Each structure stands twice: as structure tokens, then as C-alpha cells.
Amino acid sequence: MSKRVLIVDDEESIRSSLERLLSYEKYKTFAAADGAAALDLAASERIDVVLLDIKMPGMDGLEVLGKLKELHPDLPVIIISGHGTISTAVDATKLGAFDFLEKPIDMERLLLTIRNGVNQADLTRRNVQLQRTIGIKTNIIGAHPEMLAIMETITRVAPTNARVLIMGENGTGKELVARKLHELSNRADEPFVEVNCAAIPEDLIESELFGHEKGSFTGAISQRIGKFELADGGTLFLDEVGDMSLSAQAKVLRVLQESAFERVGGTETKHVDVRVLAASNKALLEEAARMKFREDLYYRLNVVPIRIPALRERKSDIKILAEYFLGEVAGELGRAPKKLSAGALDTLMDYSWPGNVRELRNLIERLCILTSSDVIGRDDLPALALVRAEDARKDPFGLKTYQEFKDFMEKEYLVKKLRENGGNVSRTARQLDMQRSNLYKKLEKFGIEFRKDAGVDDD
């Protein structure tokens, strides 16, 4: 990605010569003849380094420097002047100038100073990015075969620029997968920008993604840079992309095709290098059939699909996750980790987890805070409104959601049929007119124990 240099000088010949030199060196250049134009460009474009003249009409260079530092404190500004004095250099340094060069400019020194300024800015930005990501949990926990397959897919696809569509219910960890893809990618040192499409009003989503020009709509009192520009060089994560308006979808499709867009109310075409990851809890092809999602956008996003199973579909991971969260929460609270009793674990295994991993994590945190004993028992769970299997058997119609009721009844039915057939999986599958492999998956999903040799039909 080309670094961007803003040249601020009232002499057209100097601007032109610097533009030619820097363009030859593969920099993208912007030019301004005075301080006001420079400040406008710095507010509307992503700038990596500024070359700033001191003597200019209107605002002089030192005044512009002060305003630039208010706007972008970490932006390296190199002062260039034909009227340099020690006093001016000291004043510029106090205001935060990166370096001070005298005219006529030594081009070799100029290029070296620009490279040093860009490198320092990159280090500062990466440090900020690191600080932002400290505490973000990028561990993907699970030993279920589907989770192991997901981890292998992440490892394979992360170093590429392939777009990934992450599908799964709320709380399954879609954002976690997106962050892991970015963390293992070649863009890991660049920004990871997240947009929750479901949380942004429909009339503001385009402004959020693409930015807007001042006065482009009611309330647009200043220019704004959108998420695509902020993610330039890095990764943009479109969470709950199925909730995006059709007009915004059309613009996103164009960016994916051409890596270009215009801000809302603008005419200038912006070019970006962004890897797009998307996630949805909706069946997007079904949404497309109902004309609520663009089918062509679906196929653009769905280069590599990753489906995260619901927690009820990988119940063998509940113990692993619960123990991991117990240790994690204990570290946050500064306490020794608590343990789960066998009865408490059985109760967790019997629950259908409509809120998935997020619900389990929240429950473990509450238990660690509210349970006085070092061991969390079965009796600690009902007070937190956890549905227990024996309660459901007494009154299955008291279950809160249709999914809980459906899962409970399906499990009870399979347990009964398996018992009727003496634990023989093949015989049970044949009676149910179900493939044996499918029955095995169901038994594992619901945590139903069966003999490992029970698949061999001994009729």
C-alpha cells in the first residue's frame, strides 16, 4: 500500500518537483498551496506524512503545524523552509515537528527523512493497535470435530486475501473467528475495523461504511472518513451483514469488485486495499430468495464459508469451555479458580444453551462472583434460571423457547428408541429410517452415551 504524502507550499514549482520525485518513489501525493487547503486535505484524507513550508500567505507554517497536531497528534510533519533560523527550528520542534529541512532541499536527505517519519508513525500506530487488542480473547476453545475443522480452515485461509463468510447463531463466536483470521493474516499489523450492521440505522449505514462530505445530508456538519478508508491495508469485518440495506449492499458489491467507492455526497473516487470478512446469523440465500439480500453479494462474500455450530451441537465442548472460563474469570477477579461439581456439570450438559458460548461464559462469570463455595454445585444453578433436565421432564411445556422444547423432545425420543433396541445403533437407525452416521451425530450432539461397539448390528 502506497504511503501518502501531503505537500504544503505556496510555490507551484516546488510542489510540482516534489510531486514528481515522490510519485517516482511510489508515494501517493496530495498538494496544497496554503494552510487552509492543507487542513482540509488532512481532515478528509488519510495522510502518512506532511512536508510543510514555513512562509506562506494567510496562516504560516507554524500555525498550520499546531492545527495539524490537534487534528492528528501522531502525524509526522517535516518542516521545509528557505528562511530557517535556530529560533524557528526550536519553535517547530516544540510544536511537534518531526524534522526541519532547509531549502534548497537535499533530495536524498528528504527521502530518508520521509522514510524515517513513516516508520515512526507505523510503529506508533502498531503500538496503538496492540494496546487496543490487549485483553481481546482470540483463543478458540473446543475439541469437537467441527471446531477442529474450523481451526484448520482458519489456519489455511488466514494468510490469503480470500473473503470469508462466517455463519452461526448469536453467541457462537463469529467475531472471534474474524479476529483470528486477521491475527494470522499478513495484514495483522494493519487495522481491524468492525462494523455491526444490525446496530446502525438504515439511513446511516452508507455514511458509516463510505464516509460523507460536509452538507451531504441533514446533520452532516463536517466531513467524515468511513470504515472502508479506515481499514485501508487491513481487514474490515461486516458483522450481521444480512441486516444491511439493499442500497448499501450495492455499494459494498462495487467495492468488492473494483476496490473503489465515493463518499456519500462526494464525486471523487476513493481506492482502497481492504480484506472483507462478513458474518451473519441469517440464512442469506433464503434472504436473497425473499429479495432482502443481494444474491450476487452473497456469492462475492462466500468465497470461503465457515459455519460455527451452536453449543447444543457440540455438547462435548461444554466441560472444556466451562473450565476455561472458570480460569479466565478467576484471573480477572484475582481469585483462585472455582471448580464444578459432577452434578453441576451434568446440569450444564442437559441445558440447550439458546445463547450459546456467550451465555455459558456469562453464567460462569456470575457463578464465580455469587457462589461462596470453592465448588459450584447443582443447587447453585437453578437460582440463575438454568433449565434442568428433570424439571423439563416434569413440564416440557414450561421450557422458554421452541428450540429448547424441540431439542428436549428429540433427545428424549432418541434415548427411548435406543433403549428399546438394547443400545444397538444400527438397529435403532434402521427403525427410525435414518442413516447410521446421522444417528451417531445426533447422539453426540445431545450427549447421549452409547457403546462404541453398538453400531455393529448383531441381529
How do you describe this structure in short?
The protein is α/β, with parallel strands linked by helices and 459 residues long. The chain has helices at residues 12-24, 35-44, 61-71, 86-94, 107-133, 145-157, 174-183, 205-210, 227-230, 246-258, 284-289, 295-301, 318-333, 342-350, 356-370, 389-394, 402-420, 425-431, 436-445; strands at 4-8, 28-32, 49-53, 77-81, 99-102, 164-167, 192-196, 235-239, 260-262, 269-271, 275-280, 304-307, 339-340, 375-376.
Structure description:
Helix content is 46%, strand content 13%. The chain is α/β, with parallel strands linked by helices. It has four domains: 4-132, Rossmann fold (3-Layer(aba) Sandwich); 145-307, 3-Layer(aba) Sandwich (Rossmann fold); 311-386, Helicase, Ruva Protein, domain 3, CATH 1.10.8.60; 399-445, Arc Repressor Mutant, subunit A, CATH 1.10.10. A five-stranded parallel beta sheet has the order 2-1-3-4-5, sandwiched between helices. The protein starts with a strand and ends in a 14-residue tail after the last helix.
